[in-house]
Design brief:
The protein is mainly alpha-helical and about 240 residues long. Helices cover about 80% and strands about 0% of the residues.
Length: about 240
């Protein structure tokens, strides 16, 4: 059963890698160009403020969860690792959906509260998935790996192309990554994240319909993050198995 599962897992992983390696479509390039034009109009002070806010929120969650990190799940079977990871995705997508509905029902003011709350839920999910695959989330490099999964999920196709290359060669790239979170390119990170989330989150702030939109958006976005995380850790796991053989 484990060999059959591993064989199917490799095929699924191959499709995922090809998807993240594909060149940006015309629509992707047009959307990216439009967002860049809008970003140029926005005063630099606003960009600095948003960058600072997202940086502090992500760093706060990453560093804070270090002290409540789950213990690594010690199993050599990929099937069991992924079963445990999927249970976490199910729990956190449901939580994110409820959170989106509650903040969406409150209109604009509650909509602002959604950003840090939803971010915390997504990051905690990544911690649990990482632990399910046997990784020690207190390790700084492991938290950087999670940050790259986050970046892969909420970014343009061009950035996905760059990020998937890093994840595929993590052992080699990890030695060249920043020694601390202060050296991370937060400006680029927040622009890509914000641009990806804009439409869903703006619609969530509309009174009355915001609750439904918030619930659906948070569910889909967190589920996408969970899927990417499982496949990213599957990649590392299968690479390790290949080296052992």
């Amino acid at each position: 059963m484990d060999q059959q599962y591993e064989s199917l897992a490799r095929k699924d992983l191959k499709v995922w890698l090809e998807k993240n390696h594909k060149s940006p479509s015309i629509i992707n390039r047009m959307t990216s160009g439009t967002q860049q034009s809008i970003n140029k109009i926005i005063p630099d002070k606003i960009h600095q403020a948003v960058t600072f806010a997202i940086e502090k929120m992500v760093k706060g969650v990453l560093l804070g969860n270090k002290f409540i990190a789950p213990n690594p799940f010690l199993s050599d079977q990929l099937r069991l690792k992924e079963f445990k990871a999927r249970k976490s995705v199910k729990i956190y997508t449901r939580t994110a959906s409820i959170e989106g509905a509650v903040t969406g029902a409150g209109g604009i003011l509650m909509g602002f509260a959604d950003l840090p709350a939803f971010l915390a839920i997504k990051m905690k999910m990544l911690f649990d998935i990482s632990a399910a695959f046997g990784h020690d989330t207190k390790d700084f490099k492991e938290r950087l790996f999670m940050l790259h999964i986050f970046k892969l999920t909420f970014s343009t196709q061009k950035t996905k192309n760059e990020t998937i290359g890093i994840l595929e060669n993590w052992d080699r790239y990890s030695s060249t990554l920043p020694d601390n979170l202060d050296d991370f390119n937060w400006r680029k990170f927040q622009l890509e994240y914000r641009d990806y989330m804009d439409l869903a989150k703006l619609a969530q702030m509309i009174p009355i319909i915001g609750a439904g939109i918030g619930a659906i958006a948070n569910y889909k976005l967190s589920k996408l993050l969970g899927k990417n995380a499982i496949l990213a850790y599957r990649l590392r796991c299968l690479q390790k198995i290949k080296k052992l053989h």
